[in-house]
Each structure stands twice: as structure tokens, then as C-alpha cells.
Specification:
This is Tetratricopeptide repeat-containing protein. It comes from Chryseobacterium limigenitum. With about 900 residues, the chain is mainly α. About 55% of the residues lie in helices and about 0% in strands. Helix 9 (about 180-200) runs antiparallel to helix 10 and helix 27 crosses helix 28. The longest helix is centred in the last third of the chain and has 25 residues, at about 820-840.
């Protein structure tokens, strides 16, 4: 029967990223400025700090030496390199060694060693032949019980029980007795212990260790390999305390088996590390016991570190504890993203919208998918915060460098610690931890001979923003360790750039002269050690990416929004959030003469292909003018945009083995952001369906009096048509009424509520997404520190529904046709709905889910909203109901619009 663990499925949600939904990975959410792996003893690399995996894995396995290979290399008198020895022991075939034994070697390595190699080392070669014969069988036979927690498929793999037990024991015993070299003798003893362990002859395994391993009196690699097997057998006999102690000895004395020994200790004894401390006799054992205890319980490691310091301030594992503590602080102080709380918990789209917001990752463009995913997950986070009573402070508007400290302290979003002239805060526990760790580090660096502690002290002062003191410490460090030197160099750069209050042209020259390596991107080629995860999502956030954030923040505070934007984004990204002030700043930088070398090579490189750049900007400006009903201004921009080739999007095609990415080519009749706009844009809704074809959702008005309204137009022609309608609308007749109605229709239809809402926001269709959220319109911009998360938020200037309503008012006043008046009033009422949605977004519920009267208060709040809606935002519905209920248009609307029908009852 198959069995599964539910918790594993749940965990996989949090630690696995897929193409469709990306859960966060905690090891990719902060900058790795202090390199954990600079510890000298690389055997402790798995025990560095990691949340994504059980053990730290950001290193090459070859960095941890295998003492077994080192022992064999010594046995062969260093005639082989480490890699050659590893190949012979672990990868070379048994046939190759048998051919060597026969005197006819065919393997290139063995041929190089010469014919006398076997005679000189025959005992070792014979042992390796026997070991390679046994190796495929050296697995314990798996026995599934009714209480097994997981399912294991039927396996045909070999295991130790497939060997003839008496024959194997006899052969190994004979080889043991015949061996003259003590190390080789002990290796045969290891095979005897291992074979008995894997055949579940646990008592025999214990006896084999006493009979064949211990008497040899060697404590090298074979001994601790044997001890590891002995401990496994003891665990099989429920001798948990003894097993745990022996695994502990393996952990202490082995370089390559620390990780497996640690896991074995955990499996052997639930109180494993406390019991080890009770048995520890030497200072080394006590020190290691404290390390394991502190590693397992990381609430506050400093008391444990104090005990370790008292035993040995030069201990390598004390450095491991320190670097884990520093990394914990980094995660709090140096997150890769700082999100602005523009979303207030009630950021819904129009209640009329029926658009399906599901995103098909195989069809949608990447930036849009990312934008929509994040808004969804932010809502999930917000829900659970409310569910569990995690309170947030109210948001505050960002005013860049003019923002006061008090405002920032009220902001629930953590502020970049490198932001100049702005206060930041973390909770008291984090601050106290940083202070305590700094005191411990200052004390340890006076006692330890290792320069590591000076580097750590300098880094902690960097986190405390004491850049001067940090730099002074770094300048005084004398070391030849290449990893230490690299860290010192990096930290000097950090102190220099982060402490710079303003980035000037002269300072940019300094950056390019002295620190170009941190800003000039290099081509990254995937090697055999790089995971598919890293290849897809990029490397762990680095010093270079942190420094770019610092500069982006400085430019932001200096009012150089265009430069700030281009530090983290491409020019083409403007299409997703084309707000006017930012676009203007980016254009100003684009047109800036005499750019510095830094501006040319680092910033301007992100001015990517958007077709004709001037046309790209002109379309954005023209669109904004159209939304504000400044048709003359829009036309002047559109005249400059006639070479526009289309909104720069990409097509993604997936095959079985790879992904093909190509620029989108717009068909001749397809809307591309500038041309192929239907005259239905002047029409009205037949029903509310954004997903239906335009000729199904929309219906034309009577355009016979306006021949300049073509069936299909580009934006220049559209703006010209609106100019003519505006001129006609200044009259006093029915034609003027109709012209004003058509202008009102266009403004409504291209608003957040309209079927053609994509036309003036640099989009290609009306599918839902961040562009169509009702923002808190009191906010000038959601961007607080830089534009790094530009594609994760969305902001364009909100619609001014009064502009459309004012044109409708003119039509209403001029018209004498009752049905036309009813139609206009309904359009005015629909626009007024937009004003209500904006009000609702600005006034979200502040009731916390943890409130015991949540439901009662929420119901009362909804009643209050309904009252406000009916009293202030139902003006034109009320007129329609009281004066035009009998109009033919009104009757038709009641049949096709459910919420209007409900209101009219």
C-alpha cells in the first residue's frame, strides 16, 4: 500500500518554485554581503546558515576534502594526485584493476604508473578489487512495515542479503588475516563491520569491530568509517546513547562525513546533543557539543558562543556560529525588496468587471505574469496577517528626501538601511542581538589570532551604519588569506558607496575607475555545479546587486528618477506602468548630452530596443493627454509617433526541451498600441463582458453625421476625430449633443471601467491586471525608495471620471430626444460608479480579522458604504429612475444590466 506524508507536500509548496506560481525562497531574499564560506575549515560548510535546504549547499562538494582519499593518497606515497586517487578508489572499474594485477593494464592512469606499481602496492590494489566487488551490495535491505511513513517503489537494487553470508564472512576474515599492512588489515575489518550491519546482524557487527578494527590501534580514516558502521549497528540494537556518542566521534574526526553523522545523531537520540554534553570529557568534546547544541537551537546563540569562547577563542566552529549569527542579521537588515504599501486591503477591480483574472503562463508575457502573481500573493499574505492578528501600521505617503523621520517610523515597510537622511528601525530583539554580537566580536578579536574576527567586527559596524569605524578596522587588518582579502576589498567598497551622501558626476567617474567590476555585467556561463534553479532565477543576490540598489536609492532621493529607474529596469518596462512624471524623467536622461562614462556604460545600457524611441515616448505622452481630454496636445504627440511599430512585447514558445523567445510581430490588422482602433470605441456596451469580441460586447452609435469617424483608425486619426467632435460639440443643436455624447463615450470606454481600457495605458488588450486596480488616489506614487520593484507594483495616474461626465452633461443639456437622454444618463451613472470605486479604495475597512466582533463591525461598515454610495454616487441613476423609467432605452437596459435592474426596483 502506498503511503504519503502530507507535510512533505505542504513543504514543497514553500520550497519549490514553478513556472506558474513562485513561492519565495528565503535564501534568495537578502544580499549575501558577508561571505559565510570564508571559514578556513571547509568541512563545516554544510553547517552554514540556510533556510531553503536542510544543510547549506552553496559550495562545490570538492571544497570538502575526503579523508579516505587523502589516506589512500598517502598509502600510494603521493604518486597520484587527489583527483587521480579519487578516480582510482571511487570510479575505476574492477576489471581495470584486475588487468593491472595480471600485468596488462589498459587504463591510461594505470599504464602511466608502470608495471611495478602493483608489486609495490599489491595489498592495497587487492583490497580495492575486493571492495569494488562488494560495493554494489553494500546497502541495507529495506523492509516496509505497516507503520511506514512513506511509500517506496518495489526495488530490484542489490543489497547485502544478496551475498552468501558465510562465504563472504569467511573470505573477508581470510583476507584480514593475510594482510600485513595494518591500514589494509583495518580496512578489511571495516568491510566485516559494514557487511554485518547491512545484513542486520547487529551483534556480529559489534563483535567484528572489537575483533578486527580496534586491535589494529589506528585512528585514521578506516577507523572512523568503521565506527560509523558500528554506531549504525548499535542504533539497530536500540543502544541509542552509545550509537549517538560514536556518531559524535565520527562528526568530530571526519571531514567528509559530518553531515551524515549529524543526521544519524538526530535519528539516534531525541535528546542527542544534551546527552553528548553529559558524556563529553575533553575540552574539544565539550566545545563540539556546545556547537551542536547551539546549531540546533538558534534562538539566541550568544550564550553558547560565550561557553565556546571560554574553552577556545581560536575554535573554527566558534567562527561558524558567528557567521551564522551574522547571516541571520543580514536577512533582517538587507532584504532584496522593499515593498511600498500602496495596497490597502480593498484594492478590488470594478464590481462590474467579469474578466477572468487567471493567468496562463504559457500565453502571458513575463512581466505581466510577475506583476499579477505578486499582487495575488500579497493579498494572501495580507489575509493571513489579518487571520492571525498580525497588525500593520497605516501607510504614509512618500515625499522622498523631504520625508520626516516620524513618518518613516510609522511606515510598516522596512526602510533600506542604506537610505540617507532617513531613520530606519527593526524590532528591539534584532537591535539587541546586533549589539550583543558586536560586543562578543570585539572581545574575541582581541583573544583570537584569526583575522576573521576583525572582518566580522568591521561588518557589524557596517550594519550599524558606522562606516568610518568599519573602514578603519579594515585598513588595519594584515592577512594573506585570499578569501579574507576578497571580503575586505568588498567591504571597503560597501563602506565607500553607502556612506556617499550624493552621487555626483565626479563620484560616478570614481566608481568606473575603481569599482567597475561591481557594475559591468559579465556573461555568466552555466557550469556543472550550477543548479537549474540558479540558471532560471539567477544567482543569489550579490554585492553588485546591492550596490546598484544603493545607487538607485541615491538617485531617487536626488530626484533623478530616470537614472534610478534605469539602474534596475529596461526602457521597455515603462510600458507596464506608464505614469507621466517617471516617463519624463527617463526621457530627460535619454536626451541628456555629455553623459558620464558610468551613465553611458551602466545606466544607458538599459535603454533597450523599443523600436523608435522618440515614437515610444510620444505614444505614452499622447495617451495621457487623451485621458485628460486634451485632444490637441495628444494630436501633437501622435504626429511624432507615426513610426511607432508596436508595444514591445515578447512571444514565448515552449518545446519539450527549451524555450524560444522572439519579439512579437503585430499582424497588419492587429491593434499594436497605435493603429487598428475600431469605431466601436465611440459606442456603448451591449453587455458587460471584457472577454467577448468587441462587436459582441459593444454597439456603435449613429456616426452618419460624422464621416471623419472611420471604421478603423490610428491614434493620430482618432485624436483628429475628437478635435472635430469637440468643435461640433460647442454648438447648440442635436448634432452638438451627439458629438459630446460620443466624446463622453470614448472617455468612459477607455477608462478602467470601459471595454477599451487598454488603449491609453500602453497595453494590447483589456485583460485584467494591476493597471486596472483602483488605487488610493491620494498617493502620488507607490514607489518609495527606488524603482527596483517596478514590475511588482503598478501605477498610472487614475482616471478623472468627471471629464467624461462633463461631456455627457453637455449632451444631456442639448438633447431633446428622450431615449438619447436616458442613454446619456446611464453612461453618466456608470462613470459615477467609477468615482465611488475610487472613494471605496481610499477608505478601506480598518477592522482587523482578530477583532472578536469582526463580522458585526464588517456588516456595519458595509451598510455605511452602501449608504454613502446611494446618497452621493447614485445621482444619475436616481434621475433615470424618476424621470426616464418609461423610456425604451431604460427598459432595454433593465433587461441587459442586472445591477441597473436591481436599482430600478
Amino acid at each position: 500500500m502506498k503511503k504519503y506524508i502530507l507535510s512533505l507536500a505542504v513543504l514543497s509548496l514553500f520550497y519549490t518554485k514553478s513556472d506558474a506560481c513562485a513561492w519565495s525562497d528565503p535564501d534568495y531574499e537578502y544580499f549575501n554581503l558577508f561571505t559565510q564560506s570564508i571559514i578556513k575549515d571547509k568541512s563545516y560548510l554544510p553547517f552554514l546558515h540556510s533556510y531553503s535546504t536542510r544543510f547549506y549547499t552553496d559550495f562545490k562538494q570538492s571544497q570538502i576534502p575526503d579523508e579516505n582519499i587523502e589516506s589512500w593518497r598517502k598509502f600510494f606515497n603521493n604518486q597520484l594526485s587527489y583527483a587521480e586517487t579519487d578516480f582510482m578508489v571511487n570510479k575505476m572499474s574492477m576489471n581495470d584493476l584486475n588487468e593491472l594485477k595480471k600485468g596488462t593494464p589498459n587504463n591510461a592512469l594505470l599504464t602511466k604508473l608502470g608495471t611495478g606499481f602493483y608489486q609495490k602496492y599489491h595489498e592495497g590494489i587487492d583490497y580495492l578489487i575486493e571492495a569494488k566487488y562488494l560495493e554494489p551490495y553494500m546497502k541495507i535491505n529495506y523492509v516496509e512495515s505497516a507503520d511506514s511513513f512513506y511509500y517506496r517503489e518495489n526495488s530490484t537494487d542489490k543489497n547485502a542479503t544478496n551475498l552468501d553470508y558465510p562465504k563472504t564472512i569467511s573470505a573477508l576474515t581470510s583476507l584480514y588475516n593475510a594482510a600485513k599492512n595494518p591500514e589494509i588489515k583495518q580496512r578489511y575489518g571495516y568491510q566485516l563491520v559494514r557487511f554485518n550491519h547491512y545484513t542486520r546482524n547487529y551483534d556480529a557487527a559489534l563483535q567484528a569491530f572489537k575483533t578486527y578494527v580496534e586491535p589494529v590501534k589506528l585512528k585514521g580514516a578506516p577507523y572512523f568509517m568503521s565506527l560509523d558502521q558500528l554506531a549504525g549497528a548499535q542504533r539497530g540494537l536500540q543502544m541509542n546513547s552509545d550509537a549517538n556518542w560514536n556518531f559524535f566521534q565520527v562528526f568530530m574526526n571526519s571531514k567528509s562525513r559530518k553531515e551524515s553523522a549529524f543526521v544519524s545523531m538526530k535519528l539516534s537520540d531525541t535528546a542527542s546533543f544534551n546527552n553528548i554534553l553529559k558524556r563529553a570529557g575533553t575540552n574539544e568534546e565539550k566545545n563540539m557539543g556546545y556547537f551542536l547544541l547551539g546549531y540546533e537551537d538558534f534562538t539566541n546563540p550568544i550564550p553558547i558562543m560565550e561557553k565556546m569562547f571560554d574553552i577556545n577563542p581560536d575554535s573554527e566552529i566558534l567562527k561558524v556560529m558567528a557567521v551564522r549569527s551574522i547571516n541571520e542579521l543580514e536577512r533582517s537588515y538587507l532584504p532584496t525588496y522593499y515593498y511600498a504599501s500602496t495596497d490597502n486591503g480593498n484594492n478590488s477591480t470594478a464590481e462590474k468587471s467579469t474578466t477572468n483574472t487567471h493567468v496562463d503562463p504559457a500565453k502571458a508575457e513575463t512581466p505581466e505574469v510577475k506583476e499579477k502573481e505578486l499582487s495575488f500573493w500579497q493579498k494572501i499574505v495580507r489575509f493571513f496577517k489579518k487571520l492571525f492578528g498580525i497588525k500593520s501600521d497605516p501607510t504614509t505617503e512618500n515625499n522622498k528626501a523631504d520625508q520626516s523621520d516620524d513618518e518613516l517610523l510609522d511606515n510598516p515597510n522596512r526602510i533600506p538601511f542604506y537610505t540617507k537622511n532617513q531613520s530606519y528601525y527593526y524590532d528591539d530583539k534584532q537591535k539587541d542581538f546586533l549589539d550583543d554580537l558586536e560586543k562578543f566580536t570585539e572581545k574575541t578579536k582581541t583573544k583570537s589570532k584569526d583575522e576573521y574576527w576583525q572582518i566580522a567586527d568591521a561588518y557589524l559596524k557596517f550594519l550599524k551604519k558606522d562606516y568610518k569605524a568599519s573602514t578603519e578596522i579594515l585598513e588595519d587588518i594584515k592577512t594573506n588569506n585570499p578569501e579574507y582579502l576578497e571580503e575586505i576589498k568588498r567591504m571597503k567598497v560597501l563602506n565607500d558607496i553607502v556612506s556617499q551622501p550624493k552621487i555626483t558626476a565626479e563620484y560616478e567617474d570614481h566608481l568606473m575607475k575603481d569599482y567597475a567590476e561591481y557594475f559591468v555585467e559579465k556573461e555568466v556561463k552555466k557550469d556543472s555545479t550550477q543548479s537549474d534553479y540558479d540558471s532560471y532565477y539567477g544567482p543569489v543576490p550579490s554585492t553588485a546587486s546591492f550596490l546598484k540598489d544603493v545607487l538607485a536609492n541615491r538617485y531617487f532621493l536626488q530626484g533623478e528618477d530616470g537614472k534610478s529607474f534605469l539602474m534596475s529596469n529596461k526602457l521597455s518596462d515603462l510600458q507596464y506602468n506608464p505614469n507621466s512624471s517617471l516617463v519624463k524623467s527617463v526621457e530627460d536622461f535619454y536626451r541628456k548630452p555629455n553623459k558620464s562614462q558610468f551613465e553611458q556604460q551602466i545606466i544607458a545600457k538599459n535603454i533597450n530596443d523599443v523600436g523608435n524611441i522618440d515614437a515610444f515616448f510620444s505614444v505614452i505622452y499622447g495617451d495621457r493627454a487623451m485621458r485628460m481630454a486634451d485632444f490637441e496636445k495628444a494630436k501633437s504627440y501622435y504626429q511624432k509617433a507615426q513610426s511607432f511599430t508596436g508595444i514591445p512585447r515578447l512571444n514565448y514558445e515552449w518545446t519539450e526541451n527549451n524555450q524560444k523567445v522572439t519579439p512579437r510581430q503585430y499582424a497588419g490588422t492587429e491593434y499594436n498600441g497605435f493603429k487598428n482602433i475600431s469605431n466601436l470605441i465611440f459606442g456603448h456596451n451591449v453587455w458587460e463582458s471584457f472577454e467577448s469580441a468587441d462587436n459582441i460586447s459593444m454597439e456603435t452609435e449613429d456616426y452618419s453625421a460624422f464621416p471623419f469617424i472611420k471604421n478603423s483608425m490610428n491614434k493620430l486619426e482618432l485624436s483628429d476625430a475628437l478635435i472635430q467632435l469637440k468643435k461640433i460639440g460647442s454648438g447648440k443643436d442635436e448634432k452638438a449633443a451627439q458629438a459630446n455624447q460620443l466624446i463622453g463615450n470614448l472617455l468612459y470606454n477607455t477608462s478602467i471601467l470601459g471595454y477599451y481600457r487598454e488603449v491609453f495605458v500602453m497595453d494590447i488588450d483589456n485583460s485584467n491586471g494591476g493597471k486596472y486596480d483602483f488605487w488610493n488616489t491620494d498617493k502620488k506614487t507607490p514607489y518609495q525608495y527606488y524603482y527596483k520593484n517596478f514590475l511588482d507594483s503598478s501605477y498610472i495616474e487614475p482616471d478623472n471620471f468627471d471629464v467624461a461626465i462633463n461631456y455627457y452633461k453637455k449632451a444631456l443639456d442639448l438633447s431633446n430626444n428622450k431615449d438619447q437622454k436616458a442613454r446619456v444618463l446611464f453612461q453618466m451613472a456608470s462613470a459615477e460608479q467609477g468615482k465611488y470605486y475610487q472613494y471605496e479604495a481610499k477608505n478601506p475597512s480598518k477592522i482587523d480579522y482578530s477583532d472578536p466582533k469582526y463580522s458585526e463591525k464588517s456588516d456595519a461598515y458595509q451598510i455605511q458604504l452602501n449608504d454613502i454610495k446611494n446618497q452621493k454616487y447614485r445621482t444619475y441613476f436616481a434621475i433615470l429612475k424618476s424621470q426616464y423609467a418609461d423610456a425604451e432605452v431604460t427598459k432595454n437596459l433593465m433587461g441587459s444590466c442586472s445591477y441597473f435592474s436591481y436599482f430600478m426596483k
